[in-house]
Amino acid sequence: METVWALGGDPDLGLIRGECIKLEETHKKLVSNGSSAQNVRIAFWVMIVCIAGGIFMTAMFSILTGFPLIHFAIIGIIGGIIVYTLTSAYYNSKIKDIIKYEVAKQFGWYYEPERCVKKWKELRVEVPEIFSKGNSGQYIDDQFYGKIYSNNKSYDFHSGIFHYAVKSKDSTSHYHRHFFAFKLNKKLGSRFFLYKENAGSKFMNLFTKKEVNVESIEFNRVFAFSYQGRKGEKQFDIVKVINPSMQLKLLEIYEKKGAFNVMFAEDYVVFDFDGLILKSPRTKLSKGKGLHPDDLNDIKKTYVDLVSVMQDIVGRLH
Amino acid sequence: MVMQVLVFFVFVFLALCVWVFVVYNRLVSLRNEVENSWSGIDVQLKKRADLVPNLVSAVKGYMKHEKEVLENVTRARAAILLSKGNVKQAAAADGALDKALKSIFAVAENYPKLQASENFLSLQNELSRIEDDIASMRRIYNDNVRVFNTKVETIPTNIIANLLNFKGFEYFTATEQEKKNIELDF
Question: What pLDDT band is residue B184 in, cutting at 50, 70 and 90?
Answer without folding.
Answer: very low
